[in-house]
Amino acid sequence: MRRLLSLIFWGCLALLGPIVRVTGESLPIPPILESVRMNDGTRFFELTADEGSREFSPGSSTKTLGYNGDYLGPTIRVRRGEKVAVQVNNRLDDITSVHWHGADVPAESDGGPHQGIPPRDSWLASFVVRQPAATLWYHPHIVGTTGRQVYEGLAGLFIIDDDESDSLDLPGEYGVDDIPVILQDRRFDADGEFTYRPSMPDVMHGYFGNAILVNGVLDPSKEVPRGPVRLRLLNGSNSTLLRLTLDGLPEMAQIASDGGFLERPVELSHIILSPGERAEVIVDFSQAGNSPVVLKAETNRGQLYDALEFRPVGNTATAWKAPDTLVAPENIPESEADRTRRFVLQSGMGGRMTINGKTMNMRRVNERVPLGSTEIWEIENRDGMMSQPHSFHVHAVQFRILDINGRPPPEYDSGPKDTVLLWPGDKIRIIARFDSFPGLFMYHCHLLEHEDNGMMGQFLIEAP
Ligand code: C2O
Ligand code: CU
Ligand code: CU
Questions:
Q1: From the CB of 143, is ligand 1 less than 6 Å away?
Q2: What is the pLDDT of residues 7-32, one digit of tens each?
Q3: How far is 107 from 438, CA to CA, in rounded Å?
Q4: Does residue 278 have its Cβ closer than 6 Å to ligand 1?
Q5: Which letter does DSSP use for residue 452 in this model?
Q6: Which domain holds residue 401?
Q7: Per residue in 214-234, pLDDT tens?
Q8: CATH number, domain with residue 213
C-alpha cells in the first residue's frame, strides 16, 4: 500500500503522454552470442560497442548504440563452472566499460568505472562462472556517462545455466517458451531521436520516457505455445519503475529473482521492477482465452503501456503443474553477521545525489570489508519529502533481504538479490557474504541519473 501512494504522487508529474503506435512487429529475440574460440579450457567471446541507427517507427531513424549490432547486444549464455573470457572492443568516440551486473567475478574483470576502455581500445574480462543459474545482464559503467550509454542502447542479457536449472521441469527453449523480455522506457523527441540531455528535474526524478521498448522495438507481439512459458524480465530503464500485469490472465508465477531461483514458485497478480532488477516468471497460456494476452507496464509516473502482446497458438493444453519446490533456500542467519553498516540515500540541492552525505569520488574508498566476512547493510531512503524512490545495487555479491521497515520480505523478495527498491522513507536490511574476491567494487543507486550524479560509493574487499 505504501507503493500505491507513490504511484499516485508521480502520476501528477507526468507531462508526457505515451505515444501510441501500432506496429505489431514480431518480438525480436537477442541472439545467443557464439564463442569465437576455445583456448586452454576457456571459452572466448567478443563484444563490440559501436554506433548505429534504428527505425523504431517506420520512416524515422534514431541514432543508437549497440553491441555487435545497432541496439542492445546479444545474450551471453554460460554454464556454472565454465571458464569464460570476453574481449570488449570500443568503437565509440567515448570511454566505456562493460559491467556484468549480478556476477561474482574478480574486481579487475567487474567492468566498473576503474576498467574503462578508451576509444578504439579493447579490454579482456576473464572469470570462472562460480554462481548458480540466473538471469544477469551487462551494461557500461563509467562515472557520468553510464546513463547516456545505456539509454542509447548499450545493454544485454547474461544467462547462467547449471545442473540444477537443467533438472527442473521448466520451459527452456530459448526464444520459444523461454523468452527474454528487456523493458526500457525511452523518450523520443519530435525528430524521433533519443536526445539524452537530462535537466535538473530529470537528474532528481529520473529521465522518463514517452514510449516503452521491448527487446528494442515498440509494440511487439509474440506467438507463444498454449502452455507454460517462461519470461526473463529485466527492467532496463534508466530510472523508471515498472509495475507489470497481464491483461487476459489473472496471475503469473515468479520462479527467480535477480540472482537465481526462489525456493518455490510464487503466484503474483503483478510485479514491480525497479531499474536493474530481474524476475523470471512462468505464464500459463493454457489458461488464456482466445484473445491475446497483453503484458502491461505502468510507470511510476502513471503512464500505462501495452508493452507486449502474446498470441497463444496450438491446442489447448492442460493447466501447468507448478513444481512444489525449485531450490533449497540458502538463507544467511543474522547471527552470522560480523557487523552492520549503514547507507543513507539522499537527494540534495542542485541534483547532488549522495550516499551518507557524500558523492562518488574515484579516489575515495568509502568502506573496507574484510574478505570472508558476513555483513548486514542497512539502507535507508531519506527522500521522504522528495518522494524519490531509489534502487540500491551492490556489486560482487548476491544478498538476501532480512527485513523491509522491520518486517520480513515477501516470499518473492526472499531469494538471491543484487538490487533492491527503496520507496521514500524505506529502511531495508540486507545480508551478504563477502567471500569471493578481494578488490574494489561499487554500490550505488541504479537509477542511472542518480548514479551518474554522485549516488555511488566504493567498497574495498580486503584480504586479511
Ligand atoms: Cu548494473 Cu553497478 O550496475
Ligand atoms: Cu552491478
Ligand atoms: Cu536513486
A1: no
A2: 444 444 444 444 444 457 899 999 99
A3: 7
A4: no
A5: H
A6: 334-462
A7: 999 999 999 999 999 999 999
A8: 2.60.40.420
